[in-house]
Design a protein that fits this description.
- By secondary structure, the chain is α+β, with helices and mostly antiparallel strands.
- The protein folds into 4 domains: 1-91, Beta Polymerase, domain 2 (2-Layer Sandwich), CATH 3.30.460.10; 114-242, CCA tRNA nucleotidyltransferase, domain 2 (Poly(a)-polymerase, middle domain), CATH 1.10.1410; 246-318 and 366-377, Alpha-Beta Plaits (2-Layer Sandwich); 322-360, no CATH class.
- It is built from 13 helices and 13 strands.
- It has helices spanning 2-5, 17-21, 45-56, 96-113, 116-130, 145-155, 158-167, 183-189, 217-232, 246-256, 272-292, 334-343, 366-377, and strands spanning 12-16, 30-37, 60-63, 69-74, 77-85, 172-174, 199-201, 259-266, 297-304, 308-314, 322-329, 349-351, 354-360.
- It has a 5-stranded mixed sheet. Strands 8-10-9 form a 3-stranded antiparallel sheet, with helices on both faces. The protein has a 3-stranded antiparallel sheet with strand order 11-13-12.
- Helix 5 (116-130) crosses helix 6 and helix 6 (145-155) crosses helix 7.
- 25% of the residues are buried.
Length: 381
């Protein structure tokens, strides 16, 4: 066993994640294990763990986080094996990985006092997955499993949490264990960079950490929208994941009268959350570029069907022959004013307080232009 292989280093293997807490949901095939090393092995524990894992499993993948960890597959389960320091107090944690066993212990202690919490947590996890707000990864910027557990510990039930979000407006400060005396103290003690999320959820284990720091306003808005709809018209459908596919997107585009451009990327060749973060950045930049060309982007994104598909849904169906090219403000210094007039052979006029001239777009067909731009944008992802 892994523990036997690591026995000479006095390392201990503990189960983590939702399995340890009893909050897993049906269909989940992920298992987390934390390998706790003595602090004297801090500089070598990643190497020691890799050697032990590779002696047991035929194939493993090194993943990069605040500390390198390993992922492997066994009997249909994806297993993540994380090296952590064996510390007695979470305040000694060098990173969030070291605090993870303490997170598990905290949640388990709350569930042991109120066993019904486990089912309530599963409800919110299923709801969040179905509404596409589950996951702290960059391309989702949603609720992690731990944040969901903390929200339910705070509210007591899924329904009570929905009622809280029905009336509360961001920014929402939640401090379950009353680590601080007031919101102003939180703002003074917690780093500004950790207070940008719509929910500031003080980690009961690490008081200077906002557990919900990864949550952005768009994902939060989707969560609140879904919860408010559920309160007004409860249905099991809110807990059923509606998988995106190209057929549905094409049907929606036809109904809207938009132009759809899509591209099949095959399957990711690296860790999915890393790949998706890169892809999201590329698509966001492309969206900005298209907007600068005067193209109305109705919607864009990506989804995984049999393979990964990226798409842009366009409200602009055809281009004008010309577009506006903006120069400096009309009151720019005389030499620059004259330079602009000379360059554009007195074709300049005023638009929104700036010198402006009509120039040819250099292309006519919207679909072929966006298709080419999309292909170039994702070429190196």
């Amino acid at each position: 066993s892994l523990e036997t292989k690591l026995l000479k280093y006095n390392a201990e293997v503990v189960v983590g994640g939702s399995v340890a807490k009893g909050t897993w949901i049906k269909g989940s095939h992920d298992l987390d294990f934390f390998v706790r090393f003595d602090i004297k092995h801090e500089k070598t524990m990643e190497k020691l763990l890799k050697r032990a894992v590779n002696s047991i499993f035929k194939k493993s993948e090194v993943l990069h986080g605040s500390r390198d960890y390993l992922k492997t597959r066994y009997r249909g389960y994806y297993i993540e094996i994380v090296p952590t320091l064996k510390i007695e107090d979470p305040s000694y944690a060098k990173n969030s990985m070291d605090a993870s066993p303490f997170h598990s212990d905290y949640v388990k202690s709350k569930i042991s006092k109120n066993p019904r919490l486990a089912d309530e947590i599963r409800l919110l996890k299923a709801f969040s997955k179905a509404q596409k707000v589950y996951g702290a990864e960059t391309h989702i910027s949603g609720l992690s499993g731990y944040v969901i557990e903390l929200l339910l510990i705070h509210s007591g039930s899924f329904l009570e949490l929905a009622k809280i979000f029905d009336i509360k407006t961001p920014k929402i400060f939640l401090d379950i264990e009353k680590k601080y005396s007031s919101e102003s103290e939180i703002k003074n003690e917690v780093s500004d960079s950790k207070l940008k999320s719509p929910i500031v959820l003080i980690d009961p284990v690490l008081k200077k950490r906002n557990a919900a720091a990864a949550l952005n306003y768009d994902t939060y808005a989707q969560l609140v929208f879904s919860l408010r709809k559920f309160l007004r018209s409860p249905s099991k459908s809110f807990f059923k994941e509606d998988k995106m596919n190209l057929k549905n997107i094409r049907a929606l585009s036809k109904k809207r009268g938009t132009l759809l451009v899509s591209q099949d990327l095959g399957l990711p060749k690296e860790k999915e959350d890393v790949f998706y973060a890169k892809l999201s950045n590329k698509l966001n930049r492309l969206n900005s570029m298209l907007a600068s060309e005067g193209i109305d982007v109705y919607d864009y994104g990506f989804f995984k069907e049999n393979s990964l598909v990226v798409y842009f849904e366009l409200g602009t169906l055809q281009f004008s022959k010309m577009k506006k090219h903006f120069g400096p403000p009309v009151w720019v210094s005389p030499p620059h004013f004259e330079k602009f007039l000379k360059k554009w052979k007195n074709r300049a006029y005023v638009c929104r307080g700036k010198l402006c001239v009509d120039i040819s777009r250099g292309f006519k067909d919207v679909k072929s232009f966006v298709s080419k731009a999309l292909k170039e944008a994702v070429r190196d992802v």
